[in-house]
């Protein structure tokens, strides 16, 4: 059996086995998710919340921005608190104060150490036992706990309204005035917060840990790391070391063939772009425009970490609150990178097959118009939802779904899926002849096409959750989109495209590229598919999620440990032949992708991947550090590199191609991103890490830490990196502007010449 056939079989086995595990785990999550009670009642029979209150409260949370204003179970934004941890801590404080007054007649802070310890033990004995009755669906709470919750309701009702007494706290949390528009909605919101906190503080039946595996860390409530958390973390490190060793051994044993002699002329330079390929140019213009808007919104969002409701004294939150700017910032990251990659797919398909289907150009134009409508329409809907112009059901449909990276309303989400299916159809029509061609690169072409199919279809996983879906299930499907769609299949797509480009340029042998792509895809997907579960450790899931997620997320890092070889090989190709100067900066962006794959995705990713690590730092700025390093560093740089390769083909020998702007863009973007991470995001995350260990998770997200002089100074230190990064985006925009103006000028000159002849 040839290596190629062995790799294909291995790839199929990995995919089938991995999806079997993922779906099996999903079934387990569905069965074991924290139950939503029919009623929450006190021992006196008073109804505190109903199932409808909790479900409507979840819709209120979605409508105000959801994950974009604080977090639930550690998932979301970083300035406002994690509402789960915040509720647990405040409820415990209220309970202890009531108990101290009832038992000793004085405040809890004035009690002796032994008295405080006794009441804290009584608190745990009241909170941790599971009082959910599966037959009636009722949760019963003690009278004292009911009184503590009653006090806590008033805090959140005031906070999410416009009561002046809570204005300083709203400012600390970067919340706009009147975050939730009516008292009824604010009351319902407290029901959802209670349920998420109940799941985090109540032990599963016949277990010694809560529904969230004792997350968040809060020793007063008995929330400390479980034994499974620690054991699987240690085993994941062992697996990582073994995997890196095995891959290094394999790499050393490989027979490294010498690179072919590059052709004397650029094999792509003389080929003329087809009509549909020319139409793809607008995708890249759009991608850069969205990128610049995303960078601008990122600066505003970061600044809210200091001033809360203002932007250098301007009360910007009245028009563009933090929850809107962060929604748009994260969503545009997906939109602009996806636009660049989709444009690459539309460009490369006819290049591979040499076939231009009938009406392909019209299809490319229609798809572009549809994508613009979805982008602008979804952004408008999100703004209207956060400003509370919609009723809750309308908000879900065309406003804000409240879940990070799939925030756009359900109607827009469906339309985006339709757009992706149109893209898949266009790619299929153009690439079909290449799929039937025999040759050394056939397997890579098929891997490329399979990744296109996955990109077109797997965004639909987000539709498996509805507006009332249990949050544990909703998170499961959300990460199918965020991790599998973005981090899995786009990675495979990019690997295949780069290999095909280098083969077409005559820089690497087809057989070598074929084997490398198949092997790399197998290795990436081995950890990448099941590695999705590392996002779900503490989202109401069971211990097997921790076990599978810990081991396979460690395997995700294994191929990244040797990614430096890829960087060096790509770097050498930039000078392989004189005509390669045309592609220098495209290749340099591929080199940057390899670096950030190693550092942003690998090093910073493994910092938060082991369960015991994520237990303490989930939802802190360490997560944002990895997010920026991996998303922009890997997928953003890769999108720019792919775009430049396509633009080189579209531009031909245009005089408007100016490497000077690309050089400045490259170094500004990369140095700016590194400064942003190392001077601000990572140090803030480490400060929060110490705060968690010393006082509990709630404290690390509190104003006492987030608005301490040290943290605010570190946030200000983000400005140099942000400004340099923003300058890189502007340089890239100027490069593209000059290229377009030159094309327009050349077109007019050609037209004038034709008329005069």
UniProtKB/TrEMBL annotation:
Residue span(s) of domain Nitric oxide reductase subunit B cytochrome c-like: 37-217
Keywords, comma-separated and alphabetical: Membrane, Transmembrane, Transmembrane helix
Entries under SUPFAM superfamilies matching the protein: Cytochrome c oxidase subunit I-like
InterPro entries in UniProt: Cyt_c_oxase-like_su1_sf, Cyt_C_Oxase_1, NorB_cytochrome_c-like
Transmembrane segments: 230-250, 283-306, 333-354, 366-390, 410-431, 443-464, 484-503, 515-533, 545-565, 585-608, 628-650, 671-693, 723-741
Pfam families: COX1, NorB_cytochrome_c-like
Superkingdom of this protein's organism: Bacteria
Cross-referenced PANTHER family: CYTOCHROME B SUBUNIT OF NITRIC OXIDE REDUCTASE (PTHR10422:SF38), CYTOCHROME C OXIDASE SUBUNIT 1 (PTHR10422)
Protein name from the UniProt record: Nitric-oxide reductase large subunit
């Amino acid at each position: 059996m040839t290596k190629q056939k062995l790799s294909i079989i291995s790839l199929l086995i990995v995919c089938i086995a991995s999806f079997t595990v993922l779906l099996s785990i999903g079934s387990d999550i569905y069965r074991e998710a924290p139950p939503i009670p029919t009623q929450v009642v006190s021992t006196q029979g008073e109804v505190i919340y109903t199932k409808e209150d909790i479900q409507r409260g979840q819709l209120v949370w979605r409508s105000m921005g959801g994950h974009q204003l604080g977090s639930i179970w550690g998932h979301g934004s970083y300035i406002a608190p994690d509402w789960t941890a915040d509720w647990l801590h405040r409820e415990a404080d209220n309970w202890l104060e009531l108990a101290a007054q009832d038992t000793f007649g004085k405040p809890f802070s004035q009690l002796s150490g032994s008295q405080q310890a006794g009441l804290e033990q009584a608190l745990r004995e009241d909170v941790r036992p599971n009082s959910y009755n599966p037959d009636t669906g009722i949760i019963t709470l003690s009278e004292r706990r009911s009184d503590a919750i009653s006090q806590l309701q008033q805090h959140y009702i005031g906070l999410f309204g416009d009561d002046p007494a809570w204005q300083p706290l709203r400012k600390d949390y970067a919340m706009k005035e009147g975050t939730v528009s009516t008292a009824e909605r604010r009351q319902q919101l407290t029901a959802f917060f209670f349920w998420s906190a109940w799941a985090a503080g109540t032990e599963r039946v016949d277990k010694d840990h809560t529904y969230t595996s004792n997350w968040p860390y809060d020793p007063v409530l008995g929330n400390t790391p479980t034994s499974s958390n620690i054991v699987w973390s240690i085993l994941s490190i062992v697996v990582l070391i073994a995997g890196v060793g095995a891959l290094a051994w394999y790499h050393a044993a490989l027979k490294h063939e010498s690179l072919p002699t590059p052709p004397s002329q650029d094999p792509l330079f003389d080929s003329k772009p087809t009509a549909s390929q020319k139409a793809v140019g607008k995708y890249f213009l759009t991608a850069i425009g969205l990128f610049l808007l995303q960078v601008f919104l990122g600066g505003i969002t970061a600044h809210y970490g200091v001033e809360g409701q203002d932007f250098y004294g301007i009360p910007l939150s009245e028009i563009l609150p933090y929850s809107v700017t962060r929604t748009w910032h994260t969503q545009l990251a997906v939109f602009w990178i996806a636009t660049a990659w989709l444009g690459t797919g539309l460009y490369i398909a006819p290049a591979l097959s040499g076939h231009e289907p009938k009406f392909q150009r019209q299809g490319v134009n229609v798809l572009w118009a549809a994508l613009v409508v979805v982008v602008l329409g979804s952004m408008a809907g999100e703004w209207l939802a956060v400003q509370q112009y919609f009723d809750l059901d309308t908000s879900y449909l065309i406003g804000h779904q409240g879940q990070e990276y799939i925030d756009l309303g359900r109607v827009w989400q469906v339309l985006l899926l339709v757009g992706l299916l149109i893209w898949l159809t266009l790619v299929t029509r153009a690439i079909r002849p290449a799929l039937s061609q025999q040759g050394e690169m056939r397997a890579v072409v098929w891997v490329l096409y399979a990744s296109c199919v996955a990109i077109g279809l797997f965004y639909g996983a987000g539709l498996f959750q509805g507006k009332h879906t249990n949050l544990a299930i909703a998170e499961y499907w959300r990460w199918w989109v965020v991790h599998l769609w973005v981090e899995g299949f786009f990675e495979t797509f990019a690997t295949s495209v780069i290999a095909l480009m280098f083969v077409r340029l005559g820089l690497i042998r087809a057989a070598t590229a074929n084997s490398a792509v198949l092997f790399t895809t197998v290795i990436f997907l081995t950890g990448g598919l099941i590695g999705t579960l590392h996002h779900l450790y503490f989202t109401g899931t069971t211990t097997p999620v921790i076990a599978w997620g810990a081991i396979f997320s460690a395997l995700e890092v294994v191929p990244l440990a040797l990614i430096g070889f890829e960087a060096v090989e790509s770097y050498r190709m930039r000078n392989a032949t004189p005509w390669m100067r045309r592609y220098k900066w495209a290749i340099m962006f591929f080199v940057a992708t390899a670096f950030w794959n190693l550092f942003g995705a690998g090093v910073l990713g493994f910092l938060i991947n082991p369960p015991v690590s994520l237990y303490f730092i989930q939802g802190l700025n360490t997560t944002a550090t990895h997010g920026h390093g991996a998303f922009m560093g890997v997928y953003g740089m890769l999108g720019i590199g792919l775009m430049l390769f396509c633009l080189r083909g579209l531009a031909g020998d245009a005089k408007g191609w100016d490497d000077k702007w690309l050089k400045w863009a490259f170094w500004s973007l990369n140095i700016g991103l590194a400064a942003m991470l190392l001077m601000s995001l990572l140090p803030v995350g480490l400060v929060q890490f110490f705060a968690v260990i010393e006082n509990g998770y709630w404290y690390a997200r509190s104003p006492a830490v987030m608005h301490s002089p040290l943290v605010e100074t570190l946030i200000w230190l983000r400005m140099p990196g942000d400004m340099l990064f923003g300058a890189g985006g502007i340089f890239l925009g100027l490069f593209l502007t000059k290229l377009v103006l030159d094309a327009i000028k050349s077109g007019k000159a050609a037209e004038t010449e034709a008329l005069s002849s």
